[in-house]
Amino acid sequence: MAKISTRSKTDLLIHIGIIAALAITLFLGFFFFWLPFSTNHGQAITVPDLSRMSLDELESYLDDRNLRYEVSDCTFVAGAEPLTVQGQYPRSGAKVKEGRKIYITLTKRTAPSIPMPKLTDLTFRSAELSLRSIGLEVGQKTYVPDIAKNSVLKQFVNGREIAPGTPVAKGSKIDLHIGDGLGNTIFTLPDVVGMPLDEAKTLIRGSDLQIGTIISVDDPEKEVGTVVRQRPEANRGERIRVGETVDLWVVGPVEQDDNL
User: Fold this and answer.
1) Which of 53, 147, 219, 255 is deepest in the core (most CB within 10 A)?
2) pTM of the entire structure?
3) pLDDT tens-digit profile of 169-218?
4) Where does 186-251 sit in CATH, by number?
5) CATH no. of 44-107
């Protein structure tokens, strides 16, 4: 085996230079050739949009793009197909390396059960907000005669009345019976013409009716505050339902009732 002479200073410097050149070559080769090749450096892949994709087609779809997936969470979404993608990370459009794992959220097969809230005696608006806040929906609205206008009277699921606290599937539609502000009872309309306004109001409210519009009129032959006309008119034997309104014409200046 041939030996390299190191007897002179020049030979030593040459040997050191060769060793340094080899070290630099190895260093550059590791960081600029081998390392990028082994880590797919510079080979970025755009993450596709996986939303609403089924689990069956997801694996082959990502394999074709040199990507992988892992189910990180499951959630229930009303109206969505079971076992479809509802969320992903990284999001679509992000740049990742080949072989990157995409974490996905799938929809559950079955809806979780939640306790039915008490909606009766709430206004329809309040009931609607209450249902939405816990993942339920308003179904069919049926208005029924009742003096509690826009108040929820009964609650149903699939045609059956449901009591508060009963388990119900999340996303279910809740049918409601709502008061229309009118009662079932029909009776002869009271005659308040000629009465003072205060007495007329008392009689109307005592008959489970509501005061409608109060209109001021001039009539020098009548005392101020006297009711001279009403609508509907009672002298025709007009009949009325509980909860309906009666408009009044009153002599002189009057103020509208804030409790109407």
Assistant:
1) 147
2) 0.53
3) 988 999 999 998 887 888 889 999 999 999 999 999 998 888 999 999 99
4) 3.30.10.20
5) 3.30.10.20
